[in-house]
Design brief:
This protein is an alpha+beta fold and 327 residues long. 40% of the residues lie in helices and 21% in strands. The strands form two sheets. Strands 1, 2, 4, 5, 8 and 9 form a six-stranded antiparallel sheet that branches. It has a five-stranded mixed sheet with strand order 3-11-10-6-7, with no helix packed on it. A hairpin with a 4-residue loop joins β8 and β9. α6 packs across α7 and α7 packs antiparallel against α8. The chain starts with a helix and ends in a 6-residue tail after the last helix.
Length: 327
């Protein structure tokens, strides 16, 4: 019992710490938006937002103000104090000036540097958005600058104010902060033309492609065919003369058919078949029909021709040497 009593306060403290850690979230304790001219480093800080220069000068005439306060006021156009639960009622107008946001990030109630601190600017019409990171110190104080030149060119063509969201978050159980803080209205220079931006290439379903195959190649003109036919026919006398000069003899055909009839018939038949295939290819067949037929007939011609020529060579050699007489 004493052990349980001693552990009870520790368990209660640990449970309270866990609940407190789980219930903490990221946010900011102070965030000031200033719209000032180029090259100006500061502005007059006021809790009311927005205020104009003329209104503040009237107040300065009736109250004591230092020269530094008046200088800061003159160099700053407008000041706004952001809320962590509701956006500003009116949009902030951004022309050729610079917009600067200074804030103090907190985790729960402790100023701390978050892992991510971003200002998200979104076009509600197109859904396009871009982000600008804050420069944050270890004590949670951060700032970011924004001008029209920093925005994508697509934002310059929008007709509605841009939505600005503040994002703060880090590792751990603390919930991230992501709230709409104000709207941004761009005041463009009418003398400067707005650049047109082409839509980016996006991957997706394309239109159906209908393939149009070109027609099969036609036979050459008849006149060209007749010219080559005449040239081939004129070569026949030269072929016959060559056969006679080399000792070709029709009488040898009967001896060749007797010695190896099958190989000679297949050889001469395959030659005629090749000529027929080439004729069909020239007239009606295509290449896919011609190649298998040529391969089959060519194999038969190679095997039968080798056998037939071997038998012919043996027959001629035996006739030249004559019959051998045994002594």
């Amino acid at each position: 019992m004493r052990i349980l009593r001693s552990l009870s306060p520790s368990l209660l403290i640990a449970g309270a710490a866990i609940v407190n850690a789980a219930s903490s979230s990221w946010g900011f304790s102070e965030a000031i938006v200033s719209v000032h001219g180029k090259g100006v480093g500061g502005g007059f800080k006021d809790k009311s937002a927005p205020i104009t220069i003329s209104e503040s000068l009237r107040g300065f005439r009736s109250a004591s103000a230092t020269g530094l306060d008046i200088f800061n006021l003159l160099t700053c156009c407008l000041l706004f104090r952001l809320s962590d639960h509701a956006p500003l009622s009116k949009p902030i107008v951004l022309g050729s000036d610079d917009l600067k946001i200074v804030l103090t990030a907190v985790e729960g109630k402790t100023p701390k540097r978050p892992h991510q601190a971003l200002l998200l600017v979104k076009d509600v019409e197109t859904g396009l958005e871009t982000s600008f990171p804050f420069t944050v110190k270890d004590n949670g104080k951060g700032k970011v600058n924004l001008a029209q030149k920093d925005l994508p060119p697509q934002f310059l063509a929008t007709t509605k104010p841009l939505q600005v969201t503040l994002l703060l978050g880090s590792f751990g159980p603390s919930a991230a902060f992501s709230n709409h803080v104000f709207n941004l209205d761009l005041a463009l220079d009418p003398s400067v033309p707005i650049s047109t931006v082409e839509n980016p290439l996006r991957y997706g379903k394309l239109k159906e492609i209908h393939h149009i195959f070109r027609s099969d190649p036609k036979s050459p003109p008849v006149i060209i065919t007749l010219i080559f036919l005449a040239a081939a026919t004129a070569c026949l006398p030269a072929l016959f003369i060559s056969w006679l000069s080399l000792g070709a003899n029709i009488d040898h055909l009967s001896n060749a058919l007797k010695s190896s009839p099958i190989s000679h018939i297949l050889f001469f038949g395959s030659i005629l078949a090749l000529e027929g295939i080439f004729f069909l290819y020239y007239t009606t067949w295509n290449l896919l029909q011609t190649l298998p037929a040529v391969a089959a007939v060519g194999l038969i011609s190679f095997l039968s021709g080798s056998r037939a020529l071997t038998e012919t060579a043996i027959t001629r050699t035996s006739k030249r040497n004559g019959p051998q007489v045994e002594g």
